[in-house]
Design brief:
Elements (H helix, E strand, L loop, with lengths): L1 E5 L4 H12 L3 E6 L18 E4 L5 H8 L4 E4 L13 H21 L5 E7 L7 E4 L3 E3 L6 H5 L15 E3 L12 H20 L2 E7 L1 E3 L12 H10 L5 E2 L6 E2 L1 E3 H12 L6 E5 L5 E2 H11 L7 E2 L16 H7 L7 H9 L8
Parallel strand pairs: 1-2, 1-4, 2-3, 4-5, 5-9, 9-14, 10-13, 11-16
Antiparallel strand pairs: 6-7, 6-8, 12-15
Length: about 350
Amino acid sequence: MRVLVTGGAGFIGSHVVDALVAEGHEVLVADVLLADAHARPPAYLNPAARLCEVDVRDSAGLEHLVRGCDAVAHQAAKVGLGVDFSDVTGYVAHNDLGTAGLLAALHATGFTGRLVVASSMVVYGEGAYVCEVHGDQRPGPRSRRDLDDRRWDPPCPRCGRDLAAMPTTESHPTDPNNVYAATKLHQEHLALIFGRETGASVAALRYHNVYGPRMPRNTPYAGVASIFRSALERGRPPDVFEDGRQLRDFVHVEDVARANLVALSNPDARGCFNIASGEPRTVGAMADALARTFDSALTPRVTGDYRLGDVRHVTGSNARAAGELGWRPQIGFEEGMRGFARRELILRP
């Protein structure tokens, strides 16, 4: 196949490029090389791929790249929760308008191949919960007052009882709680509409908490695993927000790259798919795992701080990806965290 990877110089995109090259595909990379991530082509970028420095918002500039492509992996995006609401224009510009620019180029060139869009579990807001009395529940966003009072877990909205967190499926209602989440959901909507109108097969992969080599570091947009590792490398304990018991699903970037590969190769891959490990862990447990790998006396420090817009628990069911795509994660939590701490690729076949 001839495949275009937008954002292919980035953290996840570069691993998607590696997976495609390893399978013998011809790979084009479109990347604007944002200073937030990298001001120049990164040394790790696969030399077998052709890098084109282009902004995906420039649909006319993309047309010559997408023409003749069998598939597109749209990874380009501004990621993370950001600094504050002043980031709104950057997120909308790069995520919403960037996706619109790509889709306009695909439409102009008559593309009817396979499109895979990088989405995120943030579109769900809070994950799935169940009350022992009232069954499935959807708690709303946590208030600043509750968080100031360290009431971390959302109660049942009907009776106030504690809720049990459950794996979130793709049928769970979406409820984005921050600007980044809202833009990821809009990316999904635009891409899926394009698929319905053109007949192209479109899959939106809802990545859960992705970690691994090449993860951005030392920026407000870095993921929590990268922030923890950077602290340990500086000889400081990682600061864990809230009480450290918030549940997430940490999935290795090489497993995410394989998910893209199978979706790009499957003309029947349509709709939304959780890309999750299926092994929920607390954020505190992730910090502990990294600290153990560093063989350090530094233990994570639970601060009680919080970020408004963060959710308490969200983990993913990967049953649909397994059943319809044949994708299953191969890299377990302990193995993945050891490799991440040591900056090692695991390179599953």
